[in-house]
């Protein structure tokens, strides 16, 4: 607990590591809106050790960006240690990512896809804990059973982990099947270990944060998606989206980052406005924007459109259109995006599959070939592609002339009104050139004759000298 209190300052409001989203400018914005601790994005340890440019961008920080924890992923203890040694002077601790459930982590064999290899994980944590001058922390996901999750956490504590972040979801709970995080696992782990435990998951407003701390006994809460949609979450505020957007753009000007990061943040901040059908054009232009000036123009456009409603100069009427439904607050205010629960999503997918199968059956009955046989969907797609092709030009732009010696087509630029084969024979036997066919028989023979004469002169001169 000394590390959490003395070196980190007892933070309870924490911004999660987010790939392409928790860069320096966004971390500084989050701190100004109440965050007490931030993580860097997940950094690939192998790239970090080999690529100086990648390392320089990843280590971008400043005095205001403290305390800071740098997170690495990987599966080789030596490489992770090498990367951590290069980063330890820039942070308060090194975190090991053992919780990423995405497909890229599965392909790279890191994150949550290491959680079944306890010997390897223990070796990684021990190697870092023994050789770094800063503490080692870990971010994990729960297992299906409470007992295994507790044993996992205790193993990490024994290996040298000084602070543990537990995501209350399993490795399989992601994307549309995310579901709710189970805080009972966090509470059980908190009671089973002596190191500080941070709870991750289900934090969409300040009330969620307070309730999580009370129910789990964790020292802090960590949020990712809630922070992206409302960076003022930890202050309990719901500012109009253009306020954090303008502040973020100002920080990006001071601390540059890839424009793809900026675009992603603006899409999250303005998601509820951009989902409205009458803002389709603005959404398209935001997706195509490739400069800070264009981003600033789009922010101003949305601000000018919704500011009269925010001030009460115009009356906002809640509609049932897509982008406005199920919102607690008006769409221009920062608020969390509430996902469809996993059960409803599965039901929706099943209904869609049923509709697709019925539609396919109707298509097979409705569309038939010349013999009366039903067309498959694959055949129908091929026919549609063929119908979309432009019509081929059936007439030639110029008349087709034939060679004077044979029936082959005449070369359009031939000096002798011949096809290539006849022209080549004529040039060979008559010592000619044809510029149109690029046949240079005469030129090459003259050059060969010239160089032969030069060689003979050199030989004669050499004999005279001898």
UniProtKB/TrEMBL annotation:
Gene Ontology molecular functions: oxidoreductase activity
Pfam families for the chain: Dus
Reaction equations catalysed: 5,6-dihydrouridine(16) in tRNA + NADP(+) = uridine(16) in tRNA + NADPH + H(+); 5,6-dihydrouridine(17) in tRNA + NADP(+) = uridine(17) in tRNA + NADPH + H(+); 5,6-dihydrouridine(17) in tRNA + NAD(+) = uridine(17) in tRNA + NADH + H(+); 5,6-dihydrouridine(16) in tRNA + NAD(+) = uridine(16) in tRNA + NADH + H(+)
Alphabetized UniProt keyword annotations: Flavoprotein, FMN, NAD, NADP, Oxidoreductase, tRNA processing
Enzyme class at the top of the EC tree: oxidoreductase
Domain DUS-like FMN-binding: 15-237
EC number annotated for this UniProt entry: 1.3.1.88
GO annotation (BP), single: tRNA dihydrouridine synthesis
Family: Belongs to the Dus family. Dus1 subfamily.
Ranges annotated as spanning the membrane: none
Cofactor: FMN
Name the record gives this protein: tRNA-dihydrouridine(16/17) synthase [NAD(P)(+)]
Matching InterPro entries: Aldolase_TIM, DUS-like_FMN-bd, tRNA_hU_synthase_CS
Gene source species: Cryptolaemus montrouzieri
């Amino acid at each position: 607990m000394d590390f959490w209190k003395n070196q980190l300052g007892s933070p309870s409001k924490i911004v999660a590591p987010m790939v392409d989203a928790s860069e320096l400018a966004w971390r500084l914005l989050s701190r100004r809106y109440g965050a007490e601790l931030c993580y860097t994005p997940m950094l690939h340890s192998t790239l970090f050790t080999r690529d100086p440019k990648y390392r320089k961008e990843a280590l971008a920080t400043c005095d205001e960006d403290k305390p800071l924890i740098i997170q690495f992923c990987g599966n080789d203890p030596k490489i992770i240690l090498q990367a951590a040694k290069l980063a330890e002077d820039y942070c308060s601790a090194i975190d090991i990512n053992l919780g990423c459930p995405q497909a890229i982590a599965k392909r790279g064999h890191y994150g949550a896809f290491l959680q079944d290899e306890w010997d390897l994980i223990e070796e990684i944590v021990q190697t870092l804990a023994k050789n770094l001058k800063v503490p080692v922390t870990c971010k994990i996901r729960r297992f299906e059973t409470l007992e295994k999750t507790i044993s996992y956490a205790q193993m990490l504590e024994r290996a040298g982990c000084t602070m543990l972040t537990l995501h209350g979801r399993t490795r399989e709970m992601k994307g549309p099947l995310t579901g709710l995080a189970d805080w009972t696992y966090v509470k059980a782990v908190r009671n089973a270990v002596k190191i500080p435990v941070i709870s991750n998951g289900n934090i969409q407003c300040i009330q969620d944060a307070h309730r999580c701390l009370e129910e789990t006994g964790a020292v802090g809460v960590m949020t990712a998606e809630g922070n992206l949609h409302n960076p003022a979450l930890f202050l309990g505020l719901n500012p109009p989206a253009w306020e954090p957007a303008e502040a973020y753009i100002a920080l990006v000007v001071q601390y540059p980052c890839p424009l793809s990061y900026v675009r992603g943040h603006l899409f999250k901040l303005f998601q509820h406005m951009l989902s409205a059908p009458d803002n389709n054009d603005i959404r398209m232009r935001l997706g195509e924007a490739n400069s800070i000036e264009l981003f600033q123009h789009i922010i101003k456009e949305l601000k000018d459109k919704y500011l009269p409603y925010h001030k009460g100069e115009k009356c906002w009427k809640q509609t049932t259109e897509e982008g406005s439904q199920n919102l607690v607050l008006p769409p221009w205010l920062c608020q969390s995006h509430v996902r469809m629960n996993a059960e409803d999503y599965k039901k929706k997918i099943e209904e869609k599959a049923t509709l697709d199968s019925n539609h396919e059956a109707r298509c097979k009955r409705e569309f038939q070939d010349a013999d009366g046989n039903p067309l498959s969907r694959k055949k129908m797609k091929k026919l549609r592609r063929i119908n979309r092709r432009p019509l081929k030009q059936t007439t030639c732009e110029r008349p087709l002339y034939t060679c004077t010696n044979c029936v082959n087509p005449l070369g359009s630029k031939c000096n002798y009104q011949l096809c290539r084969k006849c022209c080549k024979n004529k040039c060979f036997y008559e010592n000619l050139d044809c510029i149109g066919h690029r046949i240079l028989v005469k030129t090459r023979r003259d050059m060969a004759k010239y160089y032969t004469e030069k060689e003979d002169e050199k030989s004669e001169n050499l004999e005279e000298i001898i």
